[in-house]
Amino acid sequence: MGGPRNEQDSVRAETIAIHGGYEDDPATNAVAVPIYQTAAYAFDSADHAAALFNLEAGGYRYTRINNPTTAVLERRVAALEGGLEALAVSSGQAAVNYAVTNLTSPGANIVSVPQLYGTTHTLFAHILPNQGVCTRFAESDQPGAIEELIDKNTRAVFCETVGNPAGNICDIEALARVAHRQGVPLIVDNTVASPILLRPIEYGADIVVHSLTKFMGGHGTALGGVIVDSGKFPWRENARRFPMFSRPDHSYHDLVYNDRFGDAAYIGRCRCVCARTIGAVLSPFNAFLLLQGIETVALRIERHIENGRRVAEFLRGHPRVEWINYAGFDDSPYHALAQKYLRGRGCSLMTFGVLGGYEAAKTFYDALRLVKRVVNIGDAKSLACHPASTTHRQMSAEEQRKAGVTPETLRLSVGIEHIDDILADLDQALAAGSAKVA
Ligand SMILES: Cc1ncc(COP(=O)(O)O)c(C=O)c1O
């Protein structure tokens, strides 16, 4: 699917997904990534332990800080995203939380697009304010709407590259430009697109987060998240806004992250401060499951996209479907951005409304047989969700509308089963609705 993207980057995504970040295990020559299911690592001596804690010696000390299995996952996802380094955490939600917490302090704000996954909205609107950090939600995902909210206390601009469930495609290059003009990094959640479809760092994003639970893991067996640092944001030049990277950190015997980690200061601090002291750690076993999933992500995404297109066309032509929101259509408001960022492809995530509104949506939903009724997305299995009553339930009606959710909205994450079986299930569930109306 992907060719080499630049001269230094000659290994393709399909190959990175299978081999990235791992050479045969030095202890055993094992070809599969071993699961280092250990909490701790033995020190040779007190001096060795002190050197590890001083970050003078490389190695492992405690799995809350790092782990050899998880380290492979971190290197692999960093390579897939074209980033410098990554930190894997226990869930996508932990990744979003750390990505923001790592550069905010009381009195700071972040500026966000309104089209967010529901729990991210809850984190931003209700939880971060308890830590003195406020979120300024823009009216839309347009760069101008974002820029007018940035002030001297802004620490980051946040967006989902493709919104869940809104399906909006953010103009990453334009958002990065307005953020950088004000000396602020752009953090993007790339869960829905995945690095197989879109590598935001190539368009100027500074930090990329993922729920690995979704397309990357791909089988709905393990939760996980990751934060990828592009290594490109100039923290030193913006030291007044980001003193946490340039001032001695008393919580870590006066370490200065810019000095110790250089271009990797952001992710170095995230590991030393967020992972170490807040502790939402990924289990090595889940790192292994996620690595297994990632091996096939490129292949799966191809089928997801193809099945997604077929389902979108089927729904658009169905008399029981009132509207469908799918960026792969020529008349989608996001068509031009889909051309630019997704190379003309639509994602396998889409929303639609059935004739008859909320009640008809419920009848359709309850009649599904193959497609699972769940809140997850990005599984090999086809999944359906009713966001207003689940993922986006905590939001007000107005917040839901801005996030792309109406009472009757149904979200589909189209899986990789045989397309005829998926269409047959949707068809019979739509027929159940019309039988009830008739
Ligand atoms: C776009 C997006 N970001 C973050 C998350 C949170 O991920 P997790 O469920 O792994 O905590 C989700 C979950 O659905 C999501 O869709």
Shape: globular
> What's the helix count?
16
Question: What is the strand tally?
Answer: 12
Helices and strands, in order, run as HHHEHEHEHEHEHEEHHHHEHEHEEHEH
Mean pLDDT: 94
The termini sit apart by: 46 Å
Number of domains: 2
* CATH homology group of the largest domain: Type I PLP-dependent aspartate aminotransferase-like (Major domain)
Structural class: alpha/beta
CATH fold description of the largest domain: Aspartate Aminotransferase, domain 2
CATH level-1 class of the largest domain: Alpha Beta
State Rg.
22 Å
The helix fraction, in percent, is: 25-40%
Main beta-sheet annotation: 7 strands, mixed
Model regions low in confidence, pLDDT < 50 over at least 5 residues: 1-8
Strand order of the largest sheet: 1-7-6-5-4-2-3
> Which cofactors or ions or other ligands sit in this model?
pyridoxal-5'-phosphate
CATH architecture of the largest domain: 3-Layer(aba) Sandwich
Strand content: 5-15%
What does this structure look like?
The chain has 438 residues and is α/β, with parallel strands linked by helices. The chain folds into 2 domains: 13-293, Type I PLP-dependent aspartate aminotransferase-like (Major domain) (Aspartate Aminotransferase, domain 2, 3-Layer(aba) Sandwich), CATH 3.40.640; 298-437, Alpha-Beta Complex (Aspartate Aminotransferase, domain 1). The chain is built from 16 helices and 12 strands. The strands form 2 sheets. Strands 1-7-6-5-4-2-3 form a 7-stranded mixed beta sheet, with helices on both faces. Strands 8-9-12-11-10 form a 5-stranded mixed beta sheet. Helix 1 runs antiparallel to helix 3, helix 3 packs parallel to helix 11 and helix 14 packs across helix 16. It is globular, with a radius of gyration of 22 Å. Mean pLDDT is 94; it is low at 1-8. Pyridoxal-5'-phosphate (PLP) is lined by residues 91-93, 96, 117, 120, 160, 164, 189, 191-192, 211, 213, 223, 225, 377.
